[in-house]
Amino acid sequence: MKFLVVDDDFDSRRLVQKLLHPYGYVDVATDGEEGVEAFRAALGDGEPYDVITLDILMPNADGQQALREIREIEKEHGIAPEKAAKIIMLTGLDDSSEVHDAFFLGEATSYIVKPIRRQILLDEIEKLGVHLSKNEA
After folding, report:
1. Considering the domain 2-128 in this protein, what is its CATH number?
2. Buried b (16+ CB within 10 A) or exposed e, 76-97
3. Which residues are in coiled coils (predicted)?
4. N vs C: which end of the chain shows fewer Cβ within 10 Å?
């Protein structure tokens, strides 16, 4: 299992990384631009991410912009929607227009309002059809 955590807040990034680490390899990025580049590199290496968490409010490229760019890259590579990365938007904003944009303009898979809770995040990933099993390493 391979995860990408994109968040400009160190504590949020570290928390999500810590929660996901028992289930697979976790890369981190500090803004949307870095997240898109990490996604592009992983795809180029033939090791795409299974699950990506994207904060919405970030410098350089925000989560909404990064989401749209990632979905565009997937389309350019001919990745079928059912094989696309599961992208969970994580945000402190409980804003209906942000939720709308994430789902309908960016094709987000899920949306969680912070604070991040371990069981909510893990349950949401499972609901998306991603089976989590702890690494034996």
Report:
1. 3.40.50.2300
2. eeeeeeeebbbbbbbbeeeeee
3. none
4. C
> Percentage helix, strand, coil, to 5, in the chain?
45, 20, 35
**How is 54-115 classified by DSSP, letter by letter?**
EESS-SSS-HHHHHHHHHHHHHHTT--GGGSPEEEEEES---HHHHHIIIIIS--SEEEESS
Which of helix, strand or coil describes residue 2?
strand
Phi/psi at 93 (5° precision):
-90, 115
Tokens 């592009």 -> residue: 40
pTM: 0.92
6 neighbors 32 (Cβ within 8 angstroms): yes
> What is the distance between the alpha carbons of residues 35 and 6, in angstroms, rounded to a whole number?
6
